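Duplicate of earlier report; DNA-(apurinic or apyrimidinic site) lyase input re-posted below.
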Amino acid sequence: MAEGDSIHRAAAALRTALVGRPTTRFDAPFLVGPVPGPGRIVERVESHGKHLEIVWDDGLVLHTNVRLTGSWHLYRHGERWRRPGTQVRVELHTADWIAVCFNAPVVETYREFDRSRHPGFGSHGPDLSRPDADLDESINRLYHYHDQQAPVCEALLDQHVAEGIGNVYRCEVLWATETHPFAPISSLDADDCAYLVTSAAALLRSKLRHSPRVTATISQPGSFVRSELAVYGRNGQRCARCGDTVQVCQPGEANRLVYWCPGCQVRRSLEAREVLEVYEPVREMDPHPAAAKFLSNLPWRRHHPLAG
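Output:
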């Protein structure tokens, strides 16, 4: 699994090997966007989180997001690669080095001076954990999200909407705002987007003030106190707000589990039905018989048809 520090180290190595040197060869079998011309000189290599960008002297930017599966390697010519060629997503040659990206789910290029025209790019959104973050900008980016059919649970993880919302906090924010995780962006109005963004900002900032993770109080939506997480990691347990059972599913390319309560996360739930159809059936827990037995023994779930 790629972590931020490993991407930072990879960027440092690539920066030493590539910057100031002309590109002699570039291959990217699944590239979306223009290809850098031969002889173009690498000017910068930058990283942030799991994103790594290589910038050429003509303003072309190669953006890769390694997520959970990808990685960047650096080899001398003739050196044996540590992964098979079938996993190659980018192969960049200079006179002395070969930079290879394996298994990155996102490999795209755009022009630096015109990045806002790329529907999936533009600059990263405001960091919601910062007290000076422009919340209106994040609200606007969420409301005008480029894929209006995308479920809100995926859009909240897009760093072009806002930075700082990881998987734990997207689940908690959706629970705190009573929003169905699979509601399509097109179903959200401006107030919905404002509620999600302001709640996320309050949650992230409370994390900086308190060491334990915190979640929303039920009586005061948008305010946060020290407490256990409401839904994340609590599949099969009782929801503190409505008493229904917390469910878990695994949607999208990021393979990050979504924990939610079907009993009270009903905001825009009718519009979410069509989105749910494209995903695998939602499981309340691991299908192992022991999980079914656990569910059937919960006091509020006995004799429930889904409890096994």
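Confidence is low (pLDDT under 50) at residues 114-119, 216-226, 280-287, 304-308.

Merging into the original ticket.
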